[in-house]
Amino acid sequence: MPVGYNGRASTVIVSGTEVIRPSGQLKPNADDRPIFSACKRLDFELETAFVIGKGNSIGQPIAVDNASEHIFGMVLLNDWSARDIQKWEYVPLGPFNAKTFASEVSPWIVTMDALAPFKTACPIQEPKPLAYLNEKDSNNSYDIHLSVELLPENSDEATVVCETNFKHMYWSMAQQLTHHTITGCKVEVGDMMGSGTISGPTPDSYGSMLEIAWNATKPVTLKGGETRSFIEDGDTVIMKGYSEKDGIRVGFGEVRGKVLPALNFDFNK
Fold first, then answer.
1. What global pTM score does this model have?
2. Parallel, antiparallel, or unpaired for β 141-142 and 227-228?
């Protein structure tokens, strides 16, 4: 089944908004008490998101073959992640503060009508999903080229650290929306749903620094000689996307965010 979780929409921000490094509970050593600290493993997650254009009634699931009628369009999404906060808090229930501080989107919505020429098939799903997730239309995904660039502070040239494609996503947007509403969950016009990290089959197509640098065991060398395992203060993350076929090109623009240092908190005052 498509695995997901409900997130808070209070910190959806638009491309160009600076991101303050989050602070929270970390647990560097398994046997020690947690500490309060600035995140030391800040990461991006290359995603897209779809925006609801037609809602449903409470208690009424959206059928998978009707789901396209409810999806208005797509945006690029950098679903920023605090990996060390997440490592400690996700064990009992799942991510919370590790994901709520910033979800950064590109500044306009690309409609599904504009993307129609670029429809393609999702990967073959084995084992087959349950009947309510089976789609009649096998062209249930989209050929969208995606990339991530990393630009250090005081540098003139960004380094491409990831190139991948939306068509690698195992589950279609229709399946995601149907599963989300199968219990009767109500969605409304303007709701936004993230795809999850879009990683391809090769190391240069992984959609996060956690994967690209293989959990800090294989640091990435940037143009100019600096290395990165996670995102540092002053770094700017730039995600881009487009579809192109038969002389037709539809661009998503970019989602760009610069990381600022964490705020200082004095809890003794």
1. 0.95
2. unpaired
- Between CA 194 and CA 140 the distance in angstroms is 17
**Element of type H or E holding 212:** helix 209-212
E strand or H helix that includes residue 86: helix 83-89
- Three-state secondary structure call for residue 44: coil
What is the end-to-end Cα distance of the chain in Å, rounded?
48
b vs e for 185-217, b when ≥16 Cβ sit within 10 Å of the residue's Cβ? eebeeebbbbbbbbbbeeeebbbbbbbbbeeee
**Please, which residues have CB within 8 angstroms of residue 66's CB and are 6 or more apart in sequence?**
none
Four-CA torsion 130, 135, 136, 137, nearest 10 degrees: -160
Signed CA dihedral, 187, 70, 239, 125: sign only? positive
Separation of alpha carbons 256 and 106, rounded Å: 8
Who's near 52: CB < 8 A, 6+ residues apart?
70, 71, 72, 187, 188, 189, 190, 191, 192, 193
CA distances from 83 to 80, 112, 138 (A): 9, 33, 35
Decide: 52 and 187 in contact? Cβ < 8 Å: yes
Report pLDDT digits (tens) over 158-187: 999 999 999 999 999 999 999 999 999 999
Q: Which of 5-14, 16-25, 35-44, 189-198 has the lowest mean pLDDT?
A: 5-14
